[in-house]
Amino acid sequence: MALLLVTGPFFLPEYRDGSAGRLDLISAGLSVAAILLAIYGLKELARSGPGLVTASALVVGLALGVVFVRRQQRLRDPLLDLGLFRYRTFSTALGVSLLLGVVMAGASFVTTLYLQMVAGLRPLEAGLALVPQSVVMAAGFLAAPRLANRFGQTRLVAAGISAAGVGLLVLTQVGAGGDVPTLILGMILTHAGIATPMALMLGIVLGSAPPEKAGSAAALNETSGEFGIALGIATLGTLATAAYRAEMLNRVSDLPTVAAAAAGQSITAAMATAAGLDPATGAALVEAARAAFTLGLNVVGAVGGTIFLVLAAVAWQSFRPRPAREPKASPPAAVLAPAAAGK
After folding, report:
1. What is the DSSP string of 199-260?
2. Are 277 and 262 in contact (CB under 8 A)?
3. Residue 326: pLDDT over 50
4. Cα pseudo-dihedral 315, 144, 322, 329, rounded to 10
5. With contact defined as beta carbons under 8 Å apart, do 60 and 256 qualify?
6. How high does pLDDT run on average in the chain?
7. Which of 39, 107, 220, 297 is most buried (most C-beta within 10 Å)?
8. 270 with 289: CB under 8 angstroms?
């Protein structure tokens, strides 16, 4: 990083917008408040169910988001240049990047918990189990430019997202008995597929925006990815928790009310509750919690895989080059000549 900071100003070309305005701190505050409240509301909805605090956080967060957007429309120098969204390819690419982040963050969150809470791996073992997917993803990033030159950017993006979708669908086959090989296979396929679209998406975003807006476009791309990560943990984490709770309701009906309520909160709460029960009941509760959490993982895999397959179709339709319109063909000279002679 030190080398980059020293050499970057000399070797990296930079475009400066001479008409760039000052940072609008009010817009920054509105943006942060809207995101934090909306994410908090979603996570509380998963943890505690509907309630006054949860509903208030969601409503206020959404309201602040609306105020933020309207303020950007009025400002001469907005923090978020909404004009960029007039470019169809830009908007589509940004939306695809956001959803890629949502699904990948949610799937990674749930699979990591599975390795430790269901498969029983220690943190170091779980980390080692995740190494293969990181290796194939790094390789995919490095190979993306060459593959794009050979097969075409649009084909590679669509094929990569499709492969990632298939990998997520493999997660629907993971069992509750610590089925680590199936999970690792699914995540390797997912990360191998997602690497090339993620490597190429920034180029698509920047290429679809005017040169003077490149900084804003790059910032929006980065922000959408980071927001997608937070949103993915909140939304797909909520989905996994909802599936877990629904399954646990059917499995802990014979437990004392307090123990059943605690076990229904999360798999970690179920493990803690099981430790205070007699060995037979505790073992049965642990087995039920692992089965319920695995169901949540299966649901996340099914939903994420479906989203990715739809995104692949959207990318194929939106990013492929459109043929230029040909001018209207003029009548052949042989047709025009007799008419001219008649005159």
Report:
1. HHHHHHHHHTS-GGGHHHHHHHHHHHHHHHHHHHHHHHHHHHHHHHHHHHHHHSTTS-HHHH
2. no
3. no
4. -160
5. no
6. 83
7. 107
8. yes
Rounded distance, CA 188 to CA 181, Å?
10
Burial class, 42, CB count within 10 angstroms (exposed 0-12 / middle 13-18 / buried 19+): buried
User: 101 is written with which tokens?
Assistant: 């982040």
What is the predicted pLDDT for the residue at 191? Answer: 94
CB 331 within 8 Å of CB 170: no
| Virtual torsion, Cα 124, 270, 294, 287, nearest 10 deg | 100
Q: How many CB atoms lie within 10 A of CB 5?
A: 8
Contacts 24+ apart (CB under 8 A), 8-14: none
Q: How confident is the model at residue 340, as a pLDDT?
A: 44
pLDDT in tens, 177-200: 778 999 999 999 999 999 998 888
Task: Spell out the residues 6+ positions from residue 175 whose beta carbon is closer than 8 angstroms to its own.
Answer: 182, 294
> Which CATH superfamily hosts domain 83-319?
MFS general substrate transporter like domains (1.20.1250.20)
